[in-house]
Amino acid sequence: VQLQASGGGLVQPGGSLRLSCLVSGFTFSSYYMGWFRQAPGKEREFVAGINWSGGITHYAPSVKGRFIISRDNAKNTMYLQANSLKPEDTAVYYCARRMGGGFSDGPSYDYWGQGTLVTVSS
């Protein structure tokens, strides 16, 4: 099982980025997937999650209305469109596969990508 996150970078406040998570080694279309982030000196937090079909999504209150999670099961890829970025969105973003339990709980996820750094600064 492998998850590879990409798409991070340096962006100015108000800008946008699209993160991608390419997976392999399991049947992607069978799993709920999530994005988490960890800012320097802070605990990891849930950002967004999406069910197997893409028909159900969940967002943290801090990103709702600004971020959009999606997936393309044919490409084994999940996305996070991050818009109207703020300095407080600066963090390493991780994608993860959920095995069960609460969708916003880190222990509910069994496989994690290596993370991609998003820096929001002028």
Can you walk me through this structure?
This protein is mainly β and 122 residues long. The chain has no helices and eleven strands. Strand 5 (45-50) and strand 6 form a beta hairpin.
Which stretches are poorly predicted, pLDDT < 50 over at least 5 residues?
none
Task: Kindly state the percentage of residues in helix.
Answer: under 10%
How many strands?
Answer: 11
Give the overall average pLDDT.
Answer: 97
Oligomer: single chain
What are its keywords?
122 residues; seven-stranded mixed sheet; single chain; mainly beta; four-stranded antiparallel sheet
Please describe the topology of this protein.
Layout: E1 2-6, E2 9-11, E3 17-24, E4 33-38, E5 45-50, E6 57-59, E7 67-72, E8 77-82, E9 91-98, E10 109-112, E11 116-120
Q: What would you say about this model in short?
A:
The chain is mainly β and about 120 residues long.
